[in-house]
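tokens incoming
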């Protein structure tokens, strides 16, 4: 029993092995559902489901990290002793920002692909002004809020964080200003996150 516990601990200590185990379980579940359903037709509906799963997966990563920054890291930075802060700025924050910005990009990309496969991309992006379909209006609002948030990530938050974290060299005054700008736009994204998520949920459940 002790050796088994050690083996499990060693296995789960590896993030790569943990992620691969999760993928294997997902594939097994897919094959099980494939079997009990008598097979799947690999049509537009199937690929739409794959796009939706991908969209949900990367969106969880993106919004989860957004809330991590705003609910955990930023409020607690003042409590961290100065000698320990470099560990956050030089190790944890850059790693988190890598997943943060690419999850944002993949969320938008997978969302656009999902809308295209389901045939409402143009109508949603125009907020269904011409066709007047409330569901597409709701999805469109969520899509535009997500696009604005992703643009904030790539064109405001990330460039300023690079200066704030010392990835790009700059004057101390510019570093302080950049940190403040990144924080403000991160707060803006936090404000937009709840209505964005509500729009998406409303589109799927209220219409």
């Amino acid at each position: 029993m002790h050796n088994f516990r050690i083996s499990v601990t060693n296995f789960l200590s590896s993030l790569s092995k943990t992620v691969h185990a999760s993928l294997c379980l997902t594939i097994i579940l897919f094959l099980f559902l494939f079997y009990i359903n008598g097979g799947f037709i690999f049509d537009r509906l199937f690929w739409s489901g794959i796009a939706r799963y991908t969209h949900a997966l990367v969106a969880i990563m993106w919004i989860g990290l957004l809330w991590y920054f705003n609910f955990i890291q930023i409020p607690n930075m003042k409590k961290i002793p100065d000698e320990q802060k470099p560990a956050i700025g030089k190790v944890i924050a850059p790693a988190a920002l890598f997943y943060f910005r690419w999850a944002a990009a993949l969320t938008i990309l997978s969302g656009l692909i999902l809308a295209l496969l389901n045939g409402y991309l143009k109508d949603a992006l125009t907020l269904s002004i011409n066709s007047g379909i409330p569901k597409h209006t709701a999805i469109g609002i969520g899509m535009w809020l997500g696009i604005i948030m992703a643009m904030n990530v790539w064109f405001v938050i990330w460039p300023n964080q690079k200066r704030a974290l010392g990835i790009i060299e700059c004057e101390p005054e510019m570093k302080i200003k950049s940190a403040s700008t990144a924080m403000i736009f991160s707060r803006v994204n936090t404000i937009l996150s709840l209505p964005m998520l509500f729009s998406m949920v409303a589109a799927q459940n209220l219409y």
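note: DSSP finds seven helices and no strands in the chain.
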